[in-house]
Write a structure and sequence with these properties.
about 200 residues; about 45% helix; five-stranded parallel sheet; globular; alpha/beta; single chain; 5 strands
Length: about 200
C-alpha cells in the first residue's frame, strides 16, 4: 500500500485537490481536523482548536481513519498490479505542526501516533506540499489570516523535513493543472520501489 500525503498552509487548496482526485477515482482519506472542528461547533463550541486536547482528538481520529481505510474498487493501481495508492489529506505530522504552531504541549496520543507511523513506515517519504494561493478564504473552521497561514506552512515544512520526508512542491495554479501535476507524480512514484518514511524516533 502506497499512502501519499498532501500537506500545506490552510487555504492553499489542498482539500479541493483531494476532492478532485476522489472524483477521478483515487482512494482518498479526508482531513480529520476539519471534522473534529465541525463536530465540536455543532455542539456549540465556537473555537475548539483552543482546547488543550484538540490535537489529541485529531490524532486519534487520524489513526482510526488510516487503520480503517480500505482500497476502493475504483482506485488506480500500481502498474505491477500491486496494492492501490491512497491519498491522505494531512497526516499526524500536520497535527504535530499544529501543536507546535499553537504552542501546545504534544500529548501522549499524538506522540504515540507519530512514533507509530514512522516506525511502521505508514506514509511514503515523498509528501506533496501544496503552496499558498496568495490569499486565504476564512471559514467557520479556518479563522487564520494569510500571514498566519504562511507562518503555519513553514512549520509544516520544518516538521516534515525533520522527520525524513522529501517535499514535492505543488505550485499555485488552476485546479486542473494542479491535479494533472499530482497524478503525474503519483504515477511516476508508482514506477519506483515503494519508499516509506521509516524511523523509530519520537516526534522532533
Amino acid at each position: 500500500m502506497r499512502r501519499h500525503v498532501l500537506t500545506g498552509a490552510p487555504g492553499a487548496g489542498k482539500t479541493t485537490l483531494v476532492d478532485a482526485l476522489r472524483r477521478r477515482g483515487w482512494s482518498v482519506v479526508a482531513e480529520a481536523s476539519t471534522d473534529v472542528i465541525a463536530a465540536a461547533q455543532a455542539r456549540g463550541v465556537a473555537e475548539p482548536w483552543r482546547w488543550p486536547e484538540f490535537a489529541e482528538a485529531v490524532a486519534r481520529l487520524q489513526r482510526a481513519r488510516q487503520q480503517a481505510a480500505e482500497p476502493q474498487g475504483g482506485a488506480w493501481r500500481d502498474r505491477d498490479g500491486g496494492a492501490p495508492a491512497q491519498v491522505y489529506d494531512r497526516s499526524p505530522l500536520c497535527t504535530l505542526a499544529l501543536a507546535r504552531f499553537l504552542g501546545r504541549p504534544v500529548g501522549p496520543a499524538l506522540v504515540a501516533e507519530v512514533t507509530r507511523v514512522l516506525r511502521e513506515g505508514v506514509y511514503q517519504r515523498q509528501v506533496f506540499l501544496v503552496e499558498p494561493l496568495g490569499f486565504v478564504t476564512r471559514t467557520a473552521a479556518r479563522r487564520i489570516g494569510y500571514a498566519g497561514s504562511l507562518a503555519f506552512a513553514r512549520v509544516h515544512e520544518e516538521i516534515y523535513r525533520a522527520h525524513g520526508h522529501e517535499l514535492v512542491v505543488v505550485p499555485p495554479g488552476p485546479v486542473p493543472v494542479r491535479v494533472a501535476l499530482l497524478e503525474a507524480h503519483l504515477r511516476r512514484l508508482a514506477s519506483l520501489p515503494s519508499d516509506p518514511c521509516e524511523g523509530g524516533a519520537h516526534p522532533r
